[in-house]
Amino acid sequence: MKLWNGRKSMVCLLVLFISLLAAVTIAGQLYKTEALVTDFSRKNMPPCFSHPFGTDWMGRDMFARTLTGLSMSIRIGLLTAAVSTTFAFLLGLFAASMGKAADGLVVGLIDLVMGIPHILLLVLISFALGKGFKGVVVGISLTHWTSLARLIRGEVLQLKESQYIKIARKLGHGGFETALKHMTPHLIPQLLVGLVLLFPHAILHEASITFLGFGLSSEQPAIGVILSESMKYLAMGKWWLALFPGAFLVVVVLLFHLTGEMVGRLMDPGALHQ
Amino acid sequence: MRLEANSISFQYDNGNKQILNNLNMYMDSGERLGLIAPSGFGKTTCCKILAGYEKPDNGEVLLDGRPLSSYKGYCPVQMIWQHPENSVNPRLKLKEVLKEGDGVEDRVIDGLGIEPEWLNRYPSEVSGGELQRFCIARALGGGTKFLLADEISTMLDLITQSQIWNFLISEVERREIGLLVVSHSQGLLERVCTRKLDLREQ
């Protein structure tokens, strides 16, 4: 047997990606105070050796701000995506396996939440909860589960018609047991993809409500805040204010995407043949 | 115990012809009934109705005088389907498939020639014939009173066929299970069944 194969190198790469993401998250926390230090003697400096990402109009080090911002965005993105995915999973399963009334209720709820513009509902929820980290997380979690829930419901409805689920019911397995044991393994790849796709959405929506003034305060610089603030200075030729945070946001989203894809492939190698 | 179908009629929703029309049949425990008809005469449909997978448009299926639908939990009438690859969850290991059944005894597992090394594999990692043995074993749980075998040996070689049928005959005799055999093979039905029923004559 071959000692080294594609699967093993993929696991190594996966561990590397996850530790990179974790490192950024932790480093951001460590740079938290430094990101807030203002020093007008060094304002508007382009990238140099002491400040690799330059400094902004208040003399804050952009490297520290970018890391803190990424850390904030990753935490918000992960938390909201995880909560939304769990929500979508439970509601989708509930709708499809608990009869007509439950289905009607959940579908109605999905239509209701989807019918209201995201941003409006987000602003309302975030404002009602006093803005800040909590407001943003709850707001995004409560608005982003709908399309995934619809997908899961459809998948469960399809699985319910399959022969092996019908056989399991005749073998005396209850609805809940079948859902947990027979359906969940089919739904996990879908959920992972959903989680990964939700992540950039969550970050972008966090940025937009922060921009509108209903999200994080400016002492908690998430990438969205940094980008929207740098808009004004971009026209004056201070390209480094937007380039580095923006590029690193793309890198983080890409890392997330690749991680999700690899987990999916490691868990379900047969999907390639389908 | 007696499993009976009282004047059942059935038509699929897609508006095709009436498949079963006023079918009356019965089978007793310990009996081995062979069901014959050409393709498209409703053999599989008949099995599905008798096992409770489909509801007949008219008539009823009685087990011991009670409607089959009134039996909750493990259904005493189990059906083995023609295509084993659709009958097992592709994401469960084969030992989990055996656990789905109602306490399948080791005697059954050995008798069907299931190798212990298959248990840790996924359904796509064994052949169709090997998978069919798992489906048969799963349907032979403790609560099974009637077994409906819908073309279960079509994909097997002759040696394996005889091995499985010999085992099934001894098992149903030992446990007084009623066996319904659907097959196109006249020789098999001659050899296995105690009584035959032709759907065309109904």
From TrEMBL, chain A:
This is Peptide ABC transporter permease. Keywords: Cell membrane, Membrane, Transmembrane, Transmembrane helix, Transport. It is found in: Cell membrane. GO terms for biological process: transmembrane transport. The chain crosses the membrane at residues 72-94, 106-129, 239-258. The keyword Cell membrane applies. Pfam families: BPD_transp_1. Signal peptide: none annotated. Belongs to the binding-protein-dependent transport system permease family. Its main location: membrane. It is a multi-pass membrane protein. The keyword Transmembrane applies. Residues 70-260 form the ABC transmembrane type-1 domain. One of its GO terms (cellular component) is plasma membrane.
Automatic annotation (TrEMBL), chain B:
Keywords: ATP-binding, Nucleotide-binding, Transport. GO terms for molecular function: ATP binding; ATP hydrolysis activity. InterPro entries: AAA+_ATPase, ABC_transp_ATP-bind, ABC_transporter-like_ATP-bd, ABC_transporter-like_CS, P-loop_NTPase. Residues 3-201 form the ABC transporter domain. SUPFAM superfamilies: P-loop containing nucleoside triphosphate hydrolases. It holds the Pfam family ABC_tran. GO terms for biological process: transmembrane transport. Transmembrane segments: none annotated. Belongs to the ABC transporter superfamily. PANTHER family: D,D-DIPEPTIDE TRANSPORT ATP-BINDING PROTEIN DDPF-RELATED (PTHR43776:SF7), TRANSPORT ATP-BINDING PROTEIN (PTHR43776). This is Peptide ABC transporter. It comes from Lacrimispora celerecrescens.
